[in-house]
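User: Working on a comparison across species. This one is cytochrome-c oxidase from Halomonas halophila. Can you predict its structure so I can line it up against the others?
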Amino acid sequence: MSGGSYYVPASSKWPVLASLALGAMMVGTGTLLVFGVAGMPVMVVGLLAVLGVMTLWFRDVIRESRSGLYDAQMDRSFRWGMGWFIFSEVMFFAAFFGTLFYVRTFALPWLDGEGAKGVAALLWPDFTASWPLLEPPGEGIEGPRAVLSPWQLPLVNTLILVGSSITLTVAHEALKEGYRTTARHWLAGTVLLGLCFIVIQGVEYYEAYAHYGLTLQAGIYGATFFLMTGFHGLHVIIGTIILIAILVRVSRGHFSRDDHFGFEAAAWYWHFVDVVWIGLFTFVYVF
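Assistant: Here's the predicted structure for cytochrome-c oxidase from Halomonas halophila:
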């Protein structure tokens, strides 16, 4: 690796295996949403496969990095790759937010006789548009009995994620200054906050199903609520796993003050997840 040359990674099986694992997880998730528990085994196998591929793929990249095979060109490639990955995640959640806004701004008013397609009100003349939609139109669809208050567990989780971004930023700045022990402690705090978020969201889901009648089958409100918060929760789980891996690497002295893109990439991802939650808290819970 001298002059103008740069390291070209060897052919890898991980992209293909990652695609297959993600495909299995998505097929299982779709089957679970449409047909119930029949899709659970495929989803779980797909999820475990994704985690396994992530672990082994990251292992190979870490080994290559620690072997001194990467240069500035590879660093730029990693940064561009991570940037495009986060952009794809932005588009992923934009589709969900777009669905939510479309239903609330257009579909429900049309069914209530308003707007350019108000003739749709002929389908269910007794329907009254409201959000959260507790009484969906049509027979056989039962809405939730009530909705979760945003000022209880959701607010706690908001404070936790905002706090986790702060602790992660402190850890990053400490690493850049060469204070490895300080970085490790603050990063451990970030991981702990991520785990707290996951546990609290699990409690929230239990409360929603057991006491509020808020399920995936509870009309459009239940469907959008669990799709948006559920996929975000999955991202928090993945982000927490990544931060745990970074914590192990920091503890082993893998990063230096000027060479720690693995840490930065994890931080980018975590901050993105935090920003998405702010949007969810605002438009799913509060308004």
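For your comparison, note: Residues 11-69 form one domain.

User: Helpful, thanks.
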